Amino acid sequence: MLYRQVKRQLINDIQSGFAAPGAALPNEKDLAQRFQVSVGTIRRAVDELVAEHVLLRQQGRGTFVGKLDRERFMFQFFKIVPRDRPSEFPEVRLHKFAKSRATQMEAQALGLHGNQWVFRIENVLHLQGQPVIHDRITIAAAMFPGLNQASFTARTTTIYGHYQAAFGVTIVEADERVRAELVLPDSAQLLNLAMPSPVLRIDRVAHTFDRKPAEFRTSIVDTRNFDYVSRMREMT
Amino acid sequence: MLYRQVKRQLINDIQSGFAAPGAALPNEKDLAQRFQVSVGTIRRAVDELVAEHVLLRQQGRGTFVGKLDRERFMFQFFKIVPRDRPSEFPEVRLHKFAKSRATQMEAQALGLHGNQWVFRIENVLHLQGQPVIHDRITIAAAMFPGLNQASFTARTTTIYGHYQAAFGVTIVEADERVRAELVLPDSAQLLNLAMPSPVLRIDRVAHTFDRKPAEFRTSIVDTRNFDYVSRMREMT
DNA sequence: AAGTGGTCTAGACCACTTG
DNA sequence: AAGTGGTCTAGACCACTTT
């Protein structure tokens, strides 16, 4: 299980900031020397991290730490697509930003004990010029020290890219539970929906390494013109 | 790209029935000799098929052709789970079985040209004793020659297991599009729902090897007590 | 004890990117 | 031309299952 130890070390390098998002790793021979293992063992460890999109290999160029930019967010974490059109990056408008105590449900989803402080962020996502998604995000204040509305709004990347660049929190996977509901008044107003309308509700827990929960998000989606897409394959 | 050729050969062995579901493959050394490659190349090809759940490796015992039994169906293809309970295998009740001409939408989903014959199968799936899912399945008659209601009903395994055992059609992946709708009268009656009720609608295209479409299925789900779950990771 | 897959090694050669 | 990752080889040794 040498390759497991190598993988763990590489993850540590990323979490500690020693290997920054977008930066190149040493070549495989050098890594092999550093860890005192063969190149094949390095490749096995890197193989897994590439499969998880944590690292990115480019033949002839090198191996790089994955950045949570728009492209990666769209293909890995954004599953709302137009019914008969190509996919599109949403326009995100901040609706609310607050700091308060976690509810019991939030604490459970985020693995907190007691009434820890959390940030609560609400966004309305627009597609093709129309409001389509109402997001409520909850994150533990302890994991994102110093976060505030100004810095959050001033970010130049995706929300997950901001978590990664500003707080060293790399989101690597997410679990979602989806159901159909009648829209509630607050979301109806934000999404310009009549009052009984069916909407999709998505509860997502996003995790960083070692399946540690980092974000809880509930999305209300108007699916008159958009679908939630899912591909069933592999599923490790 | 030798390992690609080996993988293709192994898939052919499964599709042709030469390697039957549940049967053991020759050991890695013998495979290496048969294909005139090294064991490492065999391992690489088998690695990928194991990741796709087409093959199953058991240390000390051997490598086996994956069977689409209840366990595999549940963890790979059945994503409707109780909100606060462990998952459960559904009781499937046949509601309709018919042979007719494909609609344009079905023909497109299944990659047919013209008004080919299709089987249309409707099921009601029960969970915890209650009707929860209304399935409409469409499959091309040409891909399932000789299928009839008697043999379909008499199957002793899952529907996908039946495709595999009786017709050599192995489902390996599925694409789904999910949305919220108000239930229509026919589904409302089958699921005992009042008449405006929000339900989940899932359009699924299931594929066999080489992404060849094999089944189109629309599921209407009562999500008052159940969720559609999805895990975002890897996503090759 | 014999047979299976699981891990690791050391090295060769190829394909691609960059200067 | 030099440096990177991608493929393939041949073999050693380990862990597990079965007889």
UniProtKB/TrEMBL annotation, chains A, B:
Origin superkingdom: Bacteria
Cross-referenced InterPro entries: Bact_HTH_transcr_reg, Chorismate_lyase_/UTRA_dom_sf, Tscrpt_reg_HTH_GntR, UTRA, WH-like_DNA-bd_sf, WH_DNA-bd_sf
A single MF term (Gene Ontology): DNA-binding transcription factor activity
Record key words, sorted: DNA-binding, Transcription, Transcription regulation
A Pfam match: UTRA
Every HTH gntR-type domain range: 1-68
One GO term (biological process): negative regulation of DNA-templated transcription
Keyword Protein transport carried by entry: no
Cited PANTHER family: MANNOSYL-D-GLYCERATE TRANSPORT/METABOLISM SYSTEM REPRESSOR MNGR-RELATED (PTHR44846), MANNOSYL-D-GLYCERATE TRANSPORT_METABOLISM SYSTEM REPRESSOR MNGR-RELATED (PTHR44846:SF1)
Protein name from the UniProt record: HTH gntR-type domain-containing protein
Lineage: Bacteria, Pseudomonadati, Pseudomonadota, Betaproteobacteria, Burkholderiales
